[in-house]
């Protein structure tokens, strides 16, 4: 998702993850100002294959592009990476923050943050999603969330909620497998149906055949992170990488932090 493509209002929030201090990746740099008014995206089935990873563009005039490492063209390639979305403190959130800050420390623990975040059907956020949010927004690495960090987190989830509602076409309050596939297509992924189903089942942690808001966010962010790991090694952007066993294990361990 660091392969830049034209603006798409269906894409992930401009910053799928908040900016991290000291980050040097191009995925954390704001895009240049746009000079034109964006146009609505085409329906997934009518989007030109040239802008879709997994559907290679026609070769340039004068010959075919030789496949890298004598391999066939990639069946799936990473889409562009959105960048982070900052937000100022919102005083309207202070009453909520104080209500869940039970010990009055001005910092929300994992348990306290869990009390503030619920899905549309009032079910609690998955514990892993809560921990993911704390790791993403705990800028001082205290293991807790202060008010300013909470405001950033709230704004971030509001952006995701807009996307969730867009793809929840039947207004069920959950994302079905078909809706999840439509979301990935809109995010410029081109993945095989078996893999999309595997990803969906992995994050359908309640085994209900649907994905709640918190698990949808968790799945998309996890996919984005895995994509970023792949991109780091895919220098020629051909959809293939060569990785040593220890490098592979190191990248897996980093994702578990």
UniProtKB/TrEMBL annotation:
Biased composition (Low complexity): 62-74
Organism of provenance: Hapsidospora chrysogenum (strain ATCC 11550 / CBS 779.69 / DSM 880 / IAM 14645 / JCM 23072 / IMI 49137) (Acremonium chrysogenum)
Keyword Thylakoid: no
Coiled coil start-end: none
One Pfam family from the record: EF-hand_5
Domain EF-hand as annotated: residue spans: 96-123, 155-190
GO molecular function: calcium ion binding; calcium-dependent protein binding
Pro residues bias: start-end ranges: 29-46
Broad class of the protein's primary localization: cytoplasm
GO cellular component: cytoplasm
Sorted UniProt keywords: Calcium, Cytoplasm, Metal-binding, Repeat
Compartment annotation: Cytoplasm
UniProt cross-references to InterPro entries, sorted A to Z: EF-hand-dom_pair, EF_Hand_1_Ca_BS, EF_hand_dom, Peflin/Sorcin_CaBP
Keyword Cytoplasm attributed: yes
Name under which the protein is recorded: Programmed cell death protein-like protein
Region (Disordered): 1-92
